[in-house]
Amino acid sequence: MLVLMTADFAADTESTAPPSKEELLTRVATGDQAAFGELYDQMAPRVLGLVKRLLIDHAQSEEVTQEIFLEIWQSATRYEPARGGASTWIMTMAHRRAVDRIRSSQAGRDRDTKIGIRDLAVAYDDVSETVETRIEHERVEKAMSRLTELQRQAISLAYYGGFSQSEVAAQLHIPLGTVKTRLRDGLIRLRDELGVAS
Amino acid sequence: MTGTENTGTPERNPGELSGAYALNALEARERAAFEAHLESSEEARIESAELSDTAVALGLATAPVQPSAALKASLMAKLSSTPQLAPLAGPASTRTTAPAADAAPAAPGLAAVPPVPPSAAGVGSRSGSGASAAERARKRWFQRPASLLAAAAAAVALFIGGTFVGLGLAGTSGTSDSFAAQQAASLAQLNAAPDVQRASATTADGHQATLVWSDTSSLSALVVDGLPALSGDKDYQLWYIGAGGAVSAGLLDTSVSASGGTAWRVLDGSLTSGDTIGMTVEPKGGSKQPTTTPIVAIQSS
């Protein structure tokens, strides 16, 4: 991995602690390209990991990842630290972009419908993970295991498969209203298991 | 719940869409209905924010994937020609320094922020001078054979002098990692130069090309959006065009731009203040002197 503009950084920061993602994003909002490079280094593998989970194809995933980071660059001025962390902001944007890509291309429709259902652990083999991501993964996996099988299926199809609620309903052969309920109840359960509160 | 299932009519109880909304599982119409509902309910906004954060946890649980080095390089090259949006009005927006902020359309919220095409960037754009520079370049190349000879001689001299690395590198076609790293480092140095300047023009087939240069560092880079890949027996070649004729500045690799990205290259050799930078299509591996009409030429002044 390239480390661009490291020298600039040393000059800019007085303290030895690396700047937080929120701090970097705030600096990006002022047109700071070095801060953007640093933020990219920290977040790009997470963003690409998510995008590739949805799109499968690596080249297309890199393309969408580039679009996402350009959007980060453009709209960093709209980021409000008080409303949430930088990675939340970035990952929310990343997921939306990946889903947009799936919905806008016919190729997206042809993906194996089992992609979304496949177990969370499957795609987690030999990756360059850190302790941090491993812990996050295990925490989420544990929380997911507290859902009903039906909730887990619906959430996986929607989030990791990028399918709309209508498509989820069609695939699982259940009424749309049931899908809405499963998605909402399942996510609320996850929220409580993960201790997410705003 | 049984009374509201799958009717296809506007939502009678939009609150139940909070889960699907957080997972981006709504169609546009459903999303609009839910966002209208959010406007009217504080409770719904809180639940929606919490469920969105929960969805992010799902995202962070996926296995990280390391992007290629080329992705970052291409992205960093695009920043200069990508304007940032104006901050939304509010107490938090004490900054007034967002570049090209006035060129950005007002957007109601993050979810609706459209990608701003680089062509909308009014950053250093001078399309008029680009066209006339191309014309001058053409005249220089095709009506003054004497300077072509001089150019060839200059190219040979540079090659012998050992500072000319473009053709050799380009012959390998694929960019090696060390080459990519060297290019990225040069681009970073260029962008960090205090006197960095930019000028844009449109290529013959309608792609936005931006020349980034710094006179003090003698560095320059050409950045082209969505440049199509050439057939296997051709390459894009860059040239310095000065009083002494045309001197090759290396080949432009399109492996990134062919998939919709941005092709860029920090030019080999040194920029002389006022040089015009041109790009031609040449036989694979490049030519000692330009053999075709430049598809774009931009003057560094």
From TrEMBL, chain A:
The keyword Transcription regulation applies. It comes from the Bacteria. Residues 138-190 form the RNA polymerase sigma factor 70 region 4 type domain. Pfam families: Sigma70_r2, Sigma70_r4_2. Keywords: Sigma factor, Transcription, Transcription regulation. Residues 39-106 form the RNA polymerase sigma-70 region domain. InterPro entries: RNA_pol_sigma-70-like, RNA_pol_sigma-70_dom, RNA_pol_sigma70_r2, RNA_pol_sigma70_r4_t2, RNA_pol_sigma_r2, RNA_pol_sigma_r3/r4-like, WH-like_DNA-bd_sf. Belongs to the sigma-70 factor family. ECF subfamily. This is Sigma-70 family RNA polymerase sigma factor. It comes from Cryobacterium glucosi.
TrEMBL record, chain B:
The keyword Transmembrane helix applies. InterPro entries: Anti-sigma-K/W_factor, Anti_sigma_zinc_sf, RskA_C. It is found in: Cell membrane; Membrane. Pfam families: RskA_C. Residues 149-295 form the Anti-sigma K factor RskA C-terminal domain. The chain crosses the membrane at residues 146-170. Residues 89-112 have a biased composition (Low complexity). The keyword Transcription applies. Residues 87-112 are annotated as: Disordered. It comes from the Bacteria. Keywords: Cell membrane, Membrane, Transcription, Transcription regulation, Transmembrane, Transmembrane helix. It is a single-pass membrane protein. This is Regulator of SigK.
